[in-house]
Amino acid sequence: MEPTSPAPGPVTPARRRIGLLALLAAAAYVLDQLTKLWVTGTMVEGERIPVLPPLLQWYYIRNSGAAFSIGEGVTWVFTIIMTVVSVAIVAYARKVRSAGWAVGLGLVLGGALGNLTDRLFREPSFGMGHVVDFISLPNFAIFNLADSAVVVGVSLVCLLTLRGISPDGTRAAKKAVTDEAPGDGRA
C-alpha cells in the first residue's frame, strides 16, 4: 500500500489575502515590464504616437528622477526607497487580513518592483538606471504602468485608513462625538 500524504488543510483567509497580494503584485509587475519591452522595442526615445488626440499619446522618455523629473541627480535614492518599500511590504504581507489592503499593497509592490527593475538593470548603470515612461496626458507627468499601480495602491491604502479599516481587517472603533457646552470644566 502506498503511503498517503495528509490532506492539505483549509485555505485560511490570511493565505487568501497573501495570495491576492502576490497575484496583484505579479500582474502589475508583468504588465509593466511587458509594456516597457514593447515601447523600447517599437519606439525611438523621444518619439510621440497619438492614441486619443489630444487626450492621450505614447511619448517614450527615460526618466532618471521621480514624477515630473524631480530628483534627477539622485537616482540611487529612488533605488534605495523602492527596495525598502518592497522589502517592507513582503515582510508585512503575512499580517494582512483585509482584501482591500491586499489589493492596495499588491499594487504598490508590483509597481515598486517594476520601476526598481528599471533602476537596477537599465542604462546608464546598475542602481542608477533610468525608468521607461511613455503614457502622456496633457499638462501632466509622463508615466508608466508601474507608476499607475503605485498611485492606485497608495490611494486605496489611504482610503482604507481614512475609513478606519486596518490591515488585519478590523475596523477602528468609532469615537463617540459629544457636544460639550463651553465652560463645563472638561478639557
TrEMBL record:
Localization in the cell: Cell membrane
Transmembrane segments: 73-92, 99-117, 137-162
Organism superkingdom: Bacteria
Subcellular location, principal: membrane
Membrane topology: Multi-pass membrane protein
Family named by the database record: Belongs to the peptidase A8 family.
Entry protein name: Lipoprotein signal peptidase
Species per Swiss-Prot/TrEMBL record: Sinomonas flava
